[in-house]
Design a protein that fits this description.
Residues 279-362 form the TGS domain. One of its GO terms (cellular component) is cytoplasm. ATP binds at residues 10-15. The chain is an alpha/beta fold. It contains 14 helices and 12 strands. The strands form 3 sheets. The protein has a 6-stranded mixed beta sheet, sandwiched between helices. Strand 8 (280-286) and strand 9 form a beta hairpin. The longest helix is centred in the middle third of the chain and has 32 residues, at 119-150. Magnesium ion binds at residues 13-14, 27, 33-34, 70.
Amino acid sequence: MKAGIVGLPNVGKSTLFNCLSNAKAQSANFPFCTIEPNIGVVNVPDPRLEKLEELVKPERVLPATVEIVDIAGLVKGASKGEGLGNQFLANIRETDAILHVLRCFNDDNIVHVDGSVDPIRDKETIDMELQLKDLDTVEKKLDKVKRAAKTGNKEAQKEEAILLKIKENLEAGVSVRALEFTEEDYEEFVKPSQFITDKPVMYVCNVDESAANTGNAYVEQVREAVKDENAEVLVLAVGTEADINELDDYEERQMFLADIGLDEPGSAKLIRSAYKLLNQQTYFTAGVKEVRAWTVNVGATGPQAAGVIHTDFEKGFIRAEVIAYEDYVTYGSEAKVKEAGKMRVEGKNYIVKDGDVMHFLFNV
Ligand SMILES: Nc1nc2c(ncn2[C@@H]2O[C@H](COP(=O)(O)OP(=O)(O)OP(=O)(O)O)[C@@H](O)[C@H]2O)c(=O)[nH]1
Ligand SMILES: [Mg+2]
């Protein structure tokens, strides 16, 4: 599962990527600096891991990770080959969620491809390119089902109706994610097409230092414009955070963060939000050798969770011993949790909860 950083050229995408990941992407003050996508595996900050570390005192601690991709900037006409063209839309298609970066800072020294700062116009430019790309997809599909629909094939007629609904909405500037379908229709006719505008989205407002904590008028415009989209809007002083990140000393970084009114980097919040946007959750294993956070889809079963560690664990799954994170912390150790009768034994149909501390029993 990966989240892609998307937006106009020169709005701070690679700078943001560098805040998140140790893999350094080139960032510079000219449009189309990024061509090939930069891929980074990013640790998901989770205070629960520190707590578990305190209690278990393991040899090592491993956080959950999420993959972030920094993609080339899109401009008007990209879907028709403008700018760096179509290939970048293909990079976006390969992601599972979109982090849409909007320039919300003034700085005459930093070139804006459209000549002025206007996050709403920018958002519409990007949305339109993505919608045009989806329009291509839906038109190709329609061509295919049309004939079968004409011959009276009921399934094809149903698909045709759904595709037409998508097409009309895209033409009116409405993204696929905003449309309503029955669950069966969605699974059968919509999801397989992997529409770009169906991917979950989060808006990242790149503001200047003074607005890191409070936001600014641009951010308010963005909030107003997306209020019906049910999407998170995150405020981040990307440039400033990149500078703070350069500091080696933890105390010093905290001091500078406090100066701009933050108690943790906005990028930490962004990673957690991206993780949620990807529909991921965490369970823990806690042993003296290793305390570790593992990533599973929301809704995963016990065996599926075990399968994240090893496929043999999934195949040979017998049962799982499960302790809720809160209970682990309340009682302080596995032994004490057991004593208190708070350890549960769960079978194959168990739906994993975020924060479960799990131990799997299996045979191979
Ligand atoms: N003033 C200011 N400058 C910023 C901020 N974020 C990024 N920049 C600058 O803007 C320029 C472009 O940043 P990049 O991160 O390379 O932009 P990009 O979106 O990756 O651009 P492309 O790869 O060309 O699409 C660089 O000179 C950054 O230092 C910010 O928050 N404030
Ligand atoms: Mg870039």
